[in-house]
Amino acid sequence: MSRSGWIQTYTGRQVFPLAPRREDIAIEDIAHALALSNRFTGHTRLAYSVAQHSVHVSQLVPVEDALWGLLHDASEAYLVDVPSPLKRLAPFAGYRACEAHLQRVIYHRFGLCGPQPASVHEADRRMLAAEAQDLLGPLHPDWPESCRGMRGRPSFRVVPWSAEEAERAFLRRFAGLYRASDEGGVGGRVAVESGGVVG
């Protein structure tokens, strides 16, 4: 992987998304960037962040999978996301490989090893259905029936938070889950330094 291309993060770190190192990953950077990143490439009626989506996914999975759910889109903090229907196409194979590698590094950074639990994918799909119904305009007929119908969606209506609210909620959720893991609950550890949550 190349270390020739880098970005500066919110906390001032130099990160090489195509050759990431665990020590360069910071939860503050992830929370801030995801709070300012919109789902659906920004094509929602109101701004709706990846950070809020991630918090909801973490609440829909079994507690032992909650940290996985919270971090499942964390690579998007360093690599801008590509819409799923495009990402699945052959020309994006290289992007998918880079994204998967970065996501593994992030998971490992916070003590999560092995394959992502199936519950996370299921919760992600349930949130997609709710978000499509609550936040997009009239859905195109080519959307899957699971997203156009009510079956399988969460019981709550998706109401967008501000970026500031989403960032705070993401960090609170992380702190609770990571701290619980230090007590034998989830997987990983948490420490608090200089008023912020860090791994």
The CATH architecture can be given as: Orthogonal Bundle
Radius of gyration: 17 Å
> How does the helix and strand content classify structurally?
mainly alpha
Largest β-sheet summary: 2 strands, antiparallel
Number of strands: 4
Q: What's the structural domain tally?
A: 1
**Relevant CATH superfamily:** Hypothetical protein af1432
Fraction of helical residues: 40-55%
CATH topology: Hypothetical protein af1432
Major sheet: arrangement of strands: 1-2
Low-confidence regions = 187-199
Fold topology:
Blueprint: E1 7-8, E2 14-15, H1 27-35, H2 50-60, H3 66-71, H4 84-87, H5 93-109, H6 118-135, H7 145-148, H8 163-182, E3 191-193, E4 196-198
Antiparallel strand pairs: 1-2, 3-4
How does this structure look, described?
This protein has one domain (7-198): Hypothetical protein af1432, CATH 1.10.3210. It has eight helices and four strands. The chain has helices at 27-35, 50-60, 66-71, 84-87, 93-109, 118-135, 145-148, 163-182, and strands at residues 7-8, 14-15, 191-193, 196-198. The strands form two sheets. A two-stranded antiparallel sheet has the order 1-2. A two-stranded antiparallel sheet has the order 3-4. Strand 1 (7-8) and strand 2 form a beta hairpin. The longest helix is centred in the C-terminal third of the chain and has 20 residues, at 163-182.
What descriptive keywords fit this protein?
single chain, 4 strands, Hypothetical protein af1432, 199 residues, two-stranded antiparallel ribbon, mainly alpha
